[in-house]
Amino acid sequence: MTNRQIILTTVPEGALGPHHFELTEAPMPAPAQGEVLLRTVLMSIDAANRSWMKGATYRAAVQAGDAMPTYAICEVVESASPRLSKGDVVAAEVVWADHVVRPAHKVQKLPPVQPLTHLLSVYGIAGKTAFHGLMQVGQPLAGETIVVSAAAGSVGGYVGQIGKALGCRVVGIAGGAEKCAFVRDELGFDDCIDYRSTGMFKALRAACPDGVDVYFDNVGGTVLETVLGLMNERGRVVCCGAISQYDTDTPTGPRNLPGVVVVKRLRMEGFIVMDFARDDAKAMRALQAWVRAGQIKVTEDVVEGLENAPQALIGLLNGENRGKRMVRVGPDPT
Amino acid sequence: MTNRQIILTTVPEGALGPHHFELTEAPMPAPAQGEVLLRTVLMSIDAANRSWMKGATYRAAVQAGDAMPTYAICEVVESASPRLSKGDVVAAEVVWADHVVRPAHKVQKLPPVQPLTHLLSVYGIAGKTAFHGLMQVGQPLAGETIVVSAAAGSVGGYVGQIGKALGCRVVGIAGGAEKCAFVRDELGFDDCIDYRSTGMFKALRAACPDGVDVYFDNVGGTVLETVLGLMNERGRVVCCGAISQYDTDTPTGPRNLPGVVVVKRLRMEGFIVMDFARDDAKAMRALQAWVRAGQIKVTEDVVEGLENAPQALIGLLNGENRGKRMVRVGPDPT
Predict the structure, then answer these.
(1) What is the CATH number of the domain that holds A230?
(2) Which residues of B touch A218 (CB under 8 A)?
(3) Cα→Cα distances B205→B94, B200, B211, B227, Å
(4) Which of A95, A277, B30, B222 is most buried (CB neighbours < 10 A)?
(5) What's the pLDDT score for residue A17?
(6) Is A334 part of a structural domain of the chain?
(7) Measured distance CA(A172)–CA(A227) in Å, rounded
(8) Do B260 and B150 reside in the same domain of the chain?
(9) Does residue A64 contact residue A52 with C-beta atoms inside 8 Å?
(10) Mean pLDDT computed over A156-165
(11) Residue B265 and residue B131 share a domain
């Protein structure tokens, strides 16, 4: 019995393409004492995956020849540890593969939530990133204005909906008229600005008549530069990601930094979701309450098949997803 | 009787030069009811003066034809207000001139400190900016490493000496070997790196073997980009100024922003000294204690004569000052 996995064959310079990956077959791995054999069910596709190829971040760099790492929801199919049993559903850091062996203490048993996809979207990495970043770093108050970029993406969509639930004015930024309509009409943002259109600064200024108090930045680059020009004094910039800078070898910095930070006394602060793991239970409780109340709509974008993971990531970097993108590798456990 | 004042005749594009200013004579102003006539004694020369010409900041932009604004120490020579008497020594926002009329409620009577110059340097805008920025925004702890740019300048020198008094490792950045020697030998920094030399990144890395916890940024630009690459996780960047960006029409942003802020979970925060005015008494008490204990050396750079104010500012923007630069317009009150 063999096991499919996808290798990053070369580290990309410039834009990521399908030729940077290869689907290979290897013998089925077997768990040693203390390990479990996992079957991959759903793999999270994130912009951060691309940043991992650029060097060491909060994790070691992905190098040429490595199986591509990912967060995933898996089923335990064989256990050599008393910690876990066959049939358990777990979250784990694995690789793009049908099966992976991991130490049992490195995987986390999941609560019984249905559908499982919600454990990657609203109750998973996307929803928790939005919740912790907005609440703990951005700290918006009712009546303030929040701007969020990549608003049609997984994190951005939840940021805006949480902001609306808190009583804020929420303006999204997304690429293209169709996405902006989705953000306004489906997600209920007050407005959404197309960053690809000309006159983005004027459009955003018109959409934010009281200025911007919190900017949740998923993109960096020129969009960040533009929003900084509209921030109010004492505004907060939640630095969550910089997708505009990942898929290139010639990153550009906002030219108004750090001057505008001084003049307006801004706070820019970075975070990653794991920093706030101790508050994950609070996030889960709040997100469930908002979902039940109909204040958060769960948006998911599921790509079928392990072999389509490279294109799922490439497409995400080009902004083709709506909501949380994931790849279904196999069926839910029965 | 006439009054000399210096006008900004044109708003500079690119570097500031003497041709942007003109010394003029006007009739001596007279105070109306509620106003005072001030004689300028000492004018503060600050990098921020140049940024005021670039547009609205925390104050209105300086425009062509305006007398050049400044903070100054003045003597009341005629009072039409019960608030102040002839002979009082005050701090005021005035202009580059021998005499200025101001509303009495807009000027602040000064405590009896000698020499008066200390009220612009260690106990004035420079020392308070260093104290509030480092203590309230940077929040260093003993044993941490502080890096400060423009270390031979007014604010930078006090930042480093306060850091040493707190038990931190302190590394300066300055332009040229002579200035670096001043920072190390006269101000007592642990080390000082010449940003004009090649290999600044490597030199700074060697000087900060435990990484950088607090970066007090007075310059922005490529120096900021370099230090960001050496910050520790959870590091704090105190955004005080961006002198490298003021005297140019082609500012450059650090290319690693905001990516490095996310990955290292940095906090970058801007401030201006007036934000912390309510804590000025604390600053004064602490600075006086350190000066008395010999832990802070007061460095001042006094240029004589109102007519030399333009060159004093131009020279400061080119980094020629050591310590707090000011212009003496007239003698101390007797």
Answers:
(1) 3.40.50.720
(2) none
(3) 43, 8, 7, 9
(4) A95
(5) 97
(6) no
(7) 11
(8) yes
(9) no
(10) 98
(11) yes
Residues A113 and A203 in one domain: no
* Alpha-carbon gap: B267 to the closest alpha carbon of chain A (Å): 4
Residues A195 and A108 in one domain: no
What is the structure's pLDDT at A1?
Answer: 84
Is B334 contained in some domain?
A: no
Of B220, B257, B258, the CB nearest to A259: B220
Residues of B in contact with A246 (CB under 8 A): 259
How does strand A35-44 pair with strand A231-239? Answer: unpaired
* Claim to verify: residue A116 and residue A131 sit in the same structural domain: no
Report whether B82 contacts B105 (CB < 8 A): no
- How far apart are the C-alpha atoms of A124 and A146, rounded to whole Å? 22
Asked whether the beta carbons of B109 and B87 are under 8 A apart, the reply is: no
Interface of B with A (CB under 8 A): 51, 57-58, 217, 220, 224-225, 237, 239-242, 245-246, 251-272, 275
Contact B261, A270 (CB under 8 A): yes
Q: What ipTM was assigned to the predicted interfaces of this complex? A: 0.85
Same domain for A90 and A150 = no
Q: Which pLDDT does position B68 carry in this prediction?
A: 98
- Which residue type sits at A104? A
- Comparing CB atoms, the residue among B240, B253, B262 nearest residue A254 is B253
Report d(CA B7, CA B29) in Å as an integer. 16
Q: Which domain holds residue A96?
A: 2-120+299-328
Q: Is residue B333 part of a domain?
A: no
* Mean pLDDT confidence for A158-169: 97
Considering only alpha carbons, which residue of chain A is nearest residue B60? A263
Instruction: Answer yes or no: do A304 and A271 share one domain.
Output: no
Rounded CA gap, A102 and A32, in Å?
9
**In this structure, are A169 and A211 located in the same domain?**
yes
Residues of chain B whose pLDDT is less than 70? none
| pLDDT one-digit tens code per residue, A51-102 | 999 888 888 999 999 999 999 999 999 999 999 999 999 999 999 999 999 9
**Residue B107 belongs to domain with CATH number:** 3.90.180.10
Tokens of A66: 């490595």
Q: Taking CA B312 as the corner, what is the angle to CA B95 and CA B50, rounded to the nearest 5 degrees?
A: 60
